[in-house]
Amino acid sequence: MAAPFRIGIAGLGTVGCGVIELLKKNGNAIADRAGRPIRVVAVSARSRMKKRICPVKSYRWASDSLDMAADPKIDAVVELIGGQGGVAKRLAETTLKAGKPFVTANKALLAHHGHKLAMLAEKHGAPLMYEAAVAGGIPIIKTLREGLAANNISAVYGILNGTCNYILTAMRETGRDFHDALKEAQKLGYAEANPSFDIDGIDTAHKLNILSMLTFGIKSEFKDFRTRGITCITLQDILFAQELGYKIKLLGISRRIKNKIFQSVEPCLVPADSNIGSVEGVYNAVHVEGDFSGTELSIGRGAGGGPTASAVVADIIDLARGRKVLPFGAPAEYMKKAARAGAEDVFSRFYMRLEVVDRPGVLAGVSAIMRDHGLSIEAVTQRGRDPGKPVSIVMTTHMVKQKDMEEAADFIAAIKSVIKPPSLLRIEHF
Ligand code: HSE
Predict the structure, then answer these.
(1) What is the residue extent of each domain of the chain?
(2) What is the pLDDT of residue 19?
(3) What residues have CB less than 8 Å from 426, skipping those under 6 apart?
(4) pLDDT at 386 over 90
């Protein structure tokens, strides 16, 4: 068997320890598949003394992770620190400039600097591998970059954040409140260090941005698309959606609309009995529409040490085999900014929940605004009857232009008897 493939790991949290454990447990089978053993030769983290879930004493400690980039006894650097800048970015740049393979699970880094890092990787002939950055254990990067490379892809969308899916599922199944469900997701090791990244949709936006770059070969920036998280979703929305035959899912959506790209992160209603509607708990799902492949849906665990380690080690095995692929499947210099589709270009059905004072004529005022914007109402439900007191009204629409719907919602918010801004969610049948 060939000489071991030697790696240095920077970052020894849940994922770092997951990688060490996986290599220990499955080392023999991996050596057979890679044609050589994979050996951890150095590790590095912020504190050497910290109590960890995996023993690391037997590995050489690199007090400065950047030293691993120049170390001739290390064949690849594995970055599991996280964060869009700081040490992770310096380590990526130093490693790639040294012509050495760089493996990362860092979606923030890739989402913000993916194009520049790909340029650097290509210039220095160094592989940049990031399977673990999107959808944990689902091999979606390889699928898009290699398996579906023959297709023109018209859409990629999915559930890309395990924590949010876990929270939404727990709320619906058990009636638990948002914070309780979030705490449990944190305890299980799904949530980001800063859980606002999960619940405000930022983590989903990071992953979607990577998928958009890869799928459409575009340079994409966050300011170019709208990101909404799940903090606006109440138990009431979840129950109303259920009554109407839907579930609420936080979706990352990237699709071609004519010659533009529509990209958005937002909670949407999806049919409860659809494939994507049945993806629950910490599971992620990615749906891809290719012109020759047709549609396909991959489902798997999107968060946690095990699934993420599985994706990291898959990249390491590819490197040990000597495989080299361009980071985004085509030369990074070909990637260009795309024309963006906005609310003017998007047609959809909508769910709107209103909190109004229960008095005659309120609904007539709301309907008049809908009529004036050319919006066709599909159904209306009022929950409760309490004259002079707040009640909830839920309305669904037929297919309408998003811009018209949003403008109407602004007018409706200004009606005196409407107590709170309308909660407006798209209904996605895809
Ligand atoms: N916090 C992320 C999630 C972890 O919940 O999906 C994986 O990126």
Answers:
(1) 5-136+309-325, 141-302, 347-427
(2) 98
(3) 266, 268, 269, 348, 349, 350, 351, 402
(4) no
pTM (2 d.p.): 0.95
What CA–CA distance (Å, rounded) separates 253 from 215?
Answer: 12
Binding site membership of 252 for ligand 1 (Cβ less than 6 Å) = no
Looking at residues 70-94, what average pLDDT do you find? Answer: 97
Q: Is the pLDDT of residue 113 over 80?
A: yes
Query: Which atom of ligand 1 is found nearest the CA of 134?
Result: 8
Tell me which CATH code domain 5-136+309-325 carries.
3.40.50.720
Q: What are phi and psi of 128, to 5 degrees?
A: -120, 115
**Is residue 111 in contact with ligand 1, taking CB distance under 6 Å?**
no
- Reported as a single tens digit per residue, the pLDDT across 175-187 is 998 999 999 989 8
**Is CATH 3.30.70.260 correct for 347-427?**
yes
Predicted confidence (pLDDT) at residue 1 exceeds the cutoff of 80: no
The CB of 203 under 6 Å from ligand 1? The reply is yes
* Distance of alpha carbon 24 from alpha carbon 144, whole angstroms: 30
For the Cβ of 161 lying below 6 angstroms from any atom of ligand 1, the answer is yes
Give φ, ψ of 61 to 5 degrees: -95, 125
Q: Is the pLDDT of residue 384 over 80?
A: no
Please give the distance, rounded to the nearest whole angstrom, from the Cα atom of residue 110 to the centre of ligand 1: 15
Burial class (CB in 10 A: 0-12, 13-18, 19+), 167: buried
Give the least confident one: 184-188, 199-203, 307-311, 337-341.
184-188
187 is catalytic: no
In CATH terms, the superfamily for domain 141-302 is: Dihydrodipicolinate Reductase; domain 2 (3.30.360.10)
Looking at the DSSP assignment, which residues form a beta bridge with residue 271?
246
Q: Ligand 1: which of 81, 165, 192, 249 to mutate, most ligand atoms within 8 Å of CB?
A: 192
Question: How much is the mean pLDDT over the chain?
Answer: 95
Which residue's CA is minimally distant from atom 8 of ligand 1?
303
